[in-house]
Design a protein that fits this description.
The chain has 202 residues and is an alpha+beta fold. The protein contains six helices and four strands.
Length: 202
């Protein structure tokens, strides 16, 4: 009787173990399903992706030398252009001496001061006093501003700018006559009425 009891107990134990093993098998099978699905997706989509990557790599390998050559050519052209500009500046005498970096602001300030004075500008009469060929300051300024713009490329200092703007193209002194005042050489008037010009080394 005891033998049969032991046999029955052993059978129950074996059946329990088999049930546990079956559960484990089912769980492993369920867990492996996503892995199988991922593998199928990879098998489906990976080859086209690899092919596309390979084609792109081939295109890059084909066109990269051409791009590099074009970049090198562009760099050479820019280098030659920069050298041409440097030579043109030397030819025009624009790099011989250091330039005053505030020339544009100075010229604008000088001309604005003349504009605020009003009156007329002309040249000195050869005989007697006064000035001739007078024009309103506003009319004179339209040409003077263009000349100042050109002079900023040529002159090196504020002093030179003031000297050039205060003379005609033929070298005669400009004279200014503000309302209610006597005519005065433009350079002298600027030295007296434009502080920045008055402070220059005359």
């Amino acid at each position: 009787m005891f033998k049969w009891a032991c046999f029955g107990l052993a059978s129950v134990f074996v059946l329990g173990c088999l049930a546990i093993l079956n559960d484990i098998r089912l769980q492993v099978r369920a867990s492996s399903r996503p892995i199988v699905e991922v593998g199928q997706l990879l098998e489906t989509h990976l080859p086209p992706l690899v092919e596309t990557t390979r084609q792109n790599a081939d295109r890059i390998a084909t066109h990269l030398p051409e791009v590099v050559d074009r970049t090198r050519s562009a760099a050479e052209v820019l280098g030659e252009l920069a050298e041409d500009i440097r030579q043109l500046k030397e030819l025009a005498g624009l790099t011989q001496n250091p330039r005053d970096k505030n020339l544009i602001a100075y010229a604008d300030s000088l001309l604005s001061r003349i504009e605020s004075a009003g009156g007329v500008i002309g040249v000195s009469k050869n005989v007697g006093g006064g000035i001739k060929n007078t024009v309103p300051v506003t009319d004179w300024l339209s040409g003077a501003r263009k000349e100042a713009l050109f002079l900023t490329l040529l002159v090196r200092s504020k002093k030179e700018m003031a000297l050039r703007l205060s003379r005609t193209k033929l070298g005669f002194h400009w004279w200014i006559q503000p309302p209610g005042q006597e005519p005065l050489r433009l350079l002298d008037w600027l030295r007296a009425n434009h502080p920045e010009t008055g402070q220059l080394d005359w």
